[in-house]
Amino acid sequence: MTKEQNPATPETAGPRPRRLTYAAVLTALEGLGLAAGGLWVLVLGLAGDPDDRQQAVTLGVTLVALALLPLLAARGLFAQRSWSRGPSVITQIMALPVAYSLLQADSIAIPAGIAIAVVAVTTLVLLINPATTQALGIRGPGRAQDQEQKQKQ
């Protein structure tokens, strides 16, 4: 399939910038963390003595299912697919309120909140970096029309 047939392939295909690789790794780590947390809650819900077994199992399954979004986004970022930036950005935006709520807790959850916040903000910065957007073949608003006009001339 050529670049004209596959719009997900960046026009400036080349080596993946380190920033994009770092964003993909951080996104994958978030996905793995969600999956591990989901499996942990699921196992505790099934093997332990939770207050509400159905609620624990539902939460575990939900966390494992939610882990698919950042894991698929990380795979797309590694492959330099333009569609992958959106799901990764959404994951980071969803992580920020989680980090904030953990920071409000008066417990051992505070370091986890700090780690989640740092990873989310760092990944957002890496994803909006011009080198990353160029490597993914993402053009800004209006630039697609400019490109089409130049091709017609």
Describe the structure concisely:
The protein has 153 residues and is mainly α. The protein has helices at residues 18-47, 53-78, 85-104, 109-128, 130-135, 143-152.
Key traits:
153 residues; mainly alpha; elongated
Structure description:
- The protein is an all-alpha fold and 153 residues long.
- It has six helices and no strands.
- Helix 1 (18-47) runs antiparallel to helix 2 (53-78), helix 1 runs antiparallel to helix 4 and helix 2 (53-78) crosses helix 3 (85-104).
- It has one domain.
- The chain is 73% helix and 0% strand.
- Mean pLDDT is 86; it is low at 1-12.
Any idea what the radius of gyration is?
Answer: 19 Å
Distance between the termini: 26 Å
Structural class: mainly alpha
Sheet-strand content, in percent, reads under 5%
In terms of quaternary structure, the protein is single chain
Number of domains: 1
Share of helix, binned: over 70%
List low-confidence stretches.
1-12
Number of helices: 6
Given the C-alpha coordinates, what overall shape results? elongated
Mind describing the biggest β-sheet? none
Mean pLDDT: 86
Number of strands: 0
Give the SSE string.
HHHHHH
Topology:
Elements: H1 18-47, H2 53-78, H3 85-104, H4 109-128, H5 130-135, H6 143-152
Helix pairs in contact: 1-2, 1-4, 2-3, 3-4
